UniProtKB/TrEMBL annotation:
Residues 253-447 form the Carbohydrate kinase FGGY C-terminal domain. This is Gluconokinase. SUPFAM superfamilies: Actin-like ATPase domain. Belongs to the FGGY kinase family. Coiled coil: none annotated. Pfam families: FGGY_C, FGGY_N. Residues 2-243 form the Carbohydrate kinase FGGY N-terminal domain. Keywords: Kinase, Transferase. It comes from Paenibacillus chitinolyticus.
Length: 508
């Protein structure tokens, strides 16, 4: 079984030893935005979704839950839940999308602490990370800060409910900006900056660590053997690489769903002199480097909802998907959108700029530009965002040989072709289930000895589609990418000014 707690839902899959899907379950939960730039979720609702998705997967697989040999666990990174002495959350989980700690991040940069923290922890300083979130709690919610005996993630909360222990894997810990990559321990300098003690964080274990002795109440509720091997697993990004088979040198995993990410696997921890990328563990011999963009398919949905009503109306009239109509319109426009660039920073930006104040822009608008140009520019802008991360990976780990693509966008041949043309590499689409939950399955197989090497995952994942680059188009995209990057650099100060104005004037 592979269990993945995502931003909008928890997904669970069950496979046999050959990786064949037997059953799947999913349960969703709401996102709370109590103030602009805040993002929270109810930990207990998320735990109920975990239970529901497990029960549904077992039912749909048509098995007895006690047949399960192992369970692997994946979660989204960067959540923070302050816990009281009785093991109860003191507030909602503050998730990765929350930007309330912008001021704390800026102070760390102003005090020249951000580079030191990055090279120790492998995580660029950004409001998404738990360290500045804890600083915010200390300064803005001292009532909660004083009561908190533990600071944990949603994965740790589920494990605490299941096993009565506070424990965290090296991968999820690696996303906190509190975990030292080289010593595999909580970093004293980071703890001092956050204002917390080591005993306020969970016990650190490898991603292949096996837990047994599940709380019998929940084991009985789910129909599981309490002694089933529960493999603690890793963060969703690392497991997404594993889930698409991108674990060998030169193979890059590129995922675009609501947001996007580009990652590759290297044999040891690695940081970037320009501080563009993150680094966290998959296993002790497999380290994931890469970056995530905050602005993936969400940008196309925004444009559809706000500006693309003719395509939406045509889709309604013809029974087609609105995105298919939009992409068909964009296909009629030449690569490069006739000089129209879209900087897709409507949610700020993570890699490679790590700037929560970045804002979206269309650049180069002329009278010759029509709505299809804007649609294509949005598609290309999303891919420019991930291409910039790809450049950082090339600088660190050498040229790619292959891209493994997943996420909703990978279903579109047109979008895949733009990607292949831009990157200049073949794009392969693996036949896989939800990549993070399947990665959790594979890591569980590896932990219990059902898979000898992680690289053997490729025996379980056939390639269903291949997209070859058009090398005549690639130079157009390279030229425009460097203009895109130049525009960002020129507007960096202005982004901060307009972001501050928006914070002052946006209605709560």
């Amino acid at each position: 079984m592979g269990l993945d707690i995502g931003t909008t839902s928890t997904k669970t899959i069950i496979t046999n030893e050959k990786g064949t899907l037997l059953g799947a379950g999913e349960a969703g939960y709401p996102l709370a935005v109590p103030q602009p730039s805040w993002a929270e979720q109810d930990s207990d609702l998320m735990f109920e979704a975990v239970l529901q998705s497990i029960k549904e997967a077992i039912q749909r697989a048509g098995i007895d839950g006690k047949q399960l040999e192992a369970i692997g666990f994946s979660t989204a990174m960067h959540s923070v839940i302050p816990m009281d002495a009785d093991g109860r959350p003191l507030m909602n989980s503050i998730i990765w999308a929350d930007n309330r700690s912008v001021a704390q991040v800026q102070r760390l940069k102003d005090e020249n602490l951000s580079s030191m923290l990055y090279h120790k922890t492998g995580i660029p300083i950004h409001p998404m990370t738990p360290l500045p979130k804890i600083m915010w709690l200390k300064e803005e919610r001292p009532d909660i800060f004083e009561k908190a005996v533990k600071y944990i993630s949603i994965k740790e909360y589920v494990l605490y409910k299941f096993f009565g222990r506070y424990v965290v894997d090296h991968s999820v810990a690696g996303g906190t900006c509190l975990f030292n990559l080289n010593t595999l321990s909580w970093d004293p300098d980071a703890l001092r900056i956050a204002g917390i003690r080591e005993d306020q964080l969970s016990e650190l274990v490898p991603t292949t660590h096996i837990m047994r002795g599940m709380n019998r109440e929940f084991a009985d509720l789910l129909g599981l053997d309490p002694e089933v091997a529960f493999v603690i697993g890793a963060a969703d990004g690392a497991l997404a690489n594993l889930g698409v088979g991108a674990v060998e040198p030169g193979v890059v995993a590129l995922t675009i769903g609501t947001s996007g990410a580009v990652r590759t696997v290297v044999p040891k921890p690695m940081t970037d002199s320009k501080e563009r990328t993150f680094c966290y563990a998959l296993t002790e011999n497999h380290w994931v480097i890469g970056g995530a963009t905050s602005n993936g398919g969400l940008m196309l949905r925004w444009f559809r909802d706000e500006f693309s009503w003719p395509e939406v109306e045509e889709a309604r009239r013809t029974g087609r998907d609105p995105y298919d109509v939009m992409i068909a319109a964009a296909k009629e426009v030449a690569p490069g959108s006739e000089g129209l660039l879209f900087l897709p920073f409507l949610s700020g930006e993570r890699a490679p700029y790590w700037n929560a104040d970045a804002r979206g822009s269309f650049f180069g608008i002329g009278l010759h530009h029509k709505r299809p140009h804007f649609i294509r520019a949005v598609l290309e802008g999303i891919l420019f965002a991930v291409y910039g991360i790809g450049i950082a990976l090339r600088d660190l780990a050498g040229p790619a040989t292959e891209i493994r693509a997943s996420g909703g966008f990978a279903r579109s041949p047109e979008w895949r072709q733009i990607m292949s043309d831009m990157f200049g590499y073949p794009v392969h689409i693996p036949k896989s289930h939800e990549s993070s939950s399947f990665g959790a399955v594979v890591l569980a197989m590896y932990a219990v000895g059902a898979l000898e090497r992680l690289e053997d995952v490729n025996k379980l994942i056939p390639i269903t589609e291949r997209q070859e680059p058009n090398i005549e188009i690639s130079p157009t995209y390279i030229e425009l990418y460097y203009l895109y990057d130049r525009v960002y650099r020129k507007l960096e100060q202005e982004f901060s000014i307009i972001a501050e104005y928006q914070r002052r004037t946006t209605t709560k």
